Amino acid sequence: MELSSRTRREHWNRLREGVDVLVIGGGITGAGVALDAATRGLVVGLVEAHDFASGTSSRSTKLIHGGIRYIPQLHLSLVREALRERQILMHIAPYLVHPLSFLVPLYEDLQRPLGLPLPAALRPIMPAAVGLGLWMYDVLAGRDDLPPHRHVSVEEARRLVPTLRPERLRGGYMYADAQTDDVRLTLAVLRTAARHGAWIVNYARVAGLLEEHGRVRGARVRDELTGEVIEVPAGHVINATGVWAEEIARMTGNAPFSIHHSKGSHLIVRRDRLGLGETALVIPETTDGRLAFVVPWGEYAIVGTTDETYRGDLSRLTVTHEEVDYLLYHVNRFMEVNLTPRDVLGVYAGLRPLISAPGKSSAALSRSHAVIPGPQGFLSIIGGKLTTYRKMAQDTVDLLLRRMGQYRPCRTEEVLLDGSENYAEARQLLEGSARQFEWEPGIVDRLLRAYGDRALLIQAIAVERPRLGRPLIPGVPVLGAEIAFIVRHEMAVRLADVLFIRTPLAILALRELPETVECAAEIMGEELGWSAEETRKQIEEVHMQIQLALGWAPRDT
């Protein structure tokens, strides 16, 4: 279905008429709530102050997982819930959520494997302790489609990750989880919600709540593109704004909860520079008593993440030299690669909206979620993580319906996300275009894994406009036709959003990005009818964002 600037205006005008449920927040949590409510027959509106997925939902480690580090912390209910959601997501979004094998290497000198402190006297039993934790992980997963964990020898561990340091290596364990593209997942949920009747609008900021006799009855919403302010009547308002949830809740007079902002930074490195195959590597301990990951992602690898309390500006998040050095140190400690900052192709950081608990560090805080009632007509959904977004939405709408005195069963365990229905059949058609456009290996796979059967719409644009069938940056698998698709079918309105959020260009090729800005602006400007002045403004905005993002670059450049 079309979700363009034209339909954005239609959705905006439709909001004036009122909705049963107004969702504030267009990240994965708000998207999930909108889809759940719409599939239960409610009239739903969703507004997002910036672009969809522009916050935490575009800056995760891109994993759908139970969280093995929560086993030593005995957060077993969270692990069980996340593992069940992992199985559901592999069913409803088969092109977006894929199995991924992980290697946990075991070394004789580990003091806190997987975050579990081990006294010196107990270190000889470390392999058995880690194996027991992974056995529990399998049990909590129940019967699903992923293989159980298994022990691997030193030789097999080195075969799976040839650059693994051999000194004091005692073998390890293999286990399975899953991987996704967080932005594409969020947009697929939003497209599915719109297909079920939800009215969604980006760049629509809530300026205040409408209240009457102590009950919230909607919101005043400002169109950030035009400045127009409208009132949106709503039977109920759902605050699903993640790290901004406390700020929105204060609009009711007070916030009955506190959000702890935890910063997670990531690096992007070429996979061949790491000698990494198809197996992800678990860095089994860090200097601050956690673990980290080196995850294959196409021809690249994601290294992450940090976990530190953040008290700065929520809208100006950058990666520091210290965070880059921290992650490089831990990669070099366990891999024979000797990475330097010059090997880092890109960086990104996000904030986790954790439920605050006095006296606990960021790493120790639970990733559980909570639905917090406010005044009549107002609910907040806080905490949680990417993997559990669907269950978070279900719990939110369940409570909403109880407050409405209704019962309507949740359907989202079975609703296929947009792009899923015919994606397997789409491969053959796309491979025809691969020959026509002489695409490099991996482009077809990336298109299918990002868009599912909607990749055929991108193919059609490339056939219609052949120059858009080429990568925007040589060697980086992002096509010009994707920009046109994102504008026509996903409501993109700003060039910076396309380059920094909707596509992975800024993550994979930040240094080369300035060379393609004008080409990308031309494509987007043709789709949206930009004037020369508007095109120049959009290009300048991107260059400013590039300079901000390059703040992590090596100090001697």
Describe this structure in words.
The chain has 557 residues and is an alpha+beta fold. The chain has three domains: 5-57 and 183-258 and 365-404, 3-Layer(bba) Sandwich (FAD/NAD(P)-binding domain); 88-179 and 260-355, D-Amino Acid Oxidase, Chain A, domain 2 (2-Layer Sandwich), CATH 3.30.9.10; 423-552, Orthogonal Bundle (Helicase, Ruva Protein, domain 3), CATH 1.10.8. It has helices at residues 5-15, 28-39, 76-92, 126-141, 154-160, 182-195, 245-249, 271-274, 321-334, 389-404, 423-437, 443-451, 455-464, 480-490, 495-502, 505-508, 517-528, 532-549, and strands at 19-24, 44-47, 63-64, 98-107, 150-152, 169-179, 199-201, 204-212, 215-223, 229-239, 259-270, 280-283, 292-297, 300-304, 308-309, 346-355, 369-373, 378-383, 471-473, 476-479. The strands form three sheets. Strands 3, 4, 5, 6, 11, 12, 13, 14, 15 and 16 form a ten-stranded mixed β-sheet that branches. A hairpin with a 2-residue loop joins strand 8 and strand 9 (215-223). The chain is globular, with a radius of gyration of 23 Å.
